[in-house]
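Aggregate trends can hide what the representation actually does to any particular protein. The sequence in question and its structure tokens are set out directly beneath this paragraph.
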Amino acid sequence: MINSQATLLAATAASEEEDSATEAELHAIIELTSTGHVGLDDLSPLREINLADLPPQTRDYVSDLLEE
């Protein structure tokens, strides 16, 4: 169940247009990944995000999540 929540949040973050909302969604994903029940495949929607369109801090969150 945690992995499906992470996938839903990742998909939402990938289509989000508001930077502050994207950051909040990424924070929630980070919390879920800390449980150890979320794999990189669960976060695959994050690959759709164009990192150049994000503020530097948010860009780092996405990069870190995709490297885990």
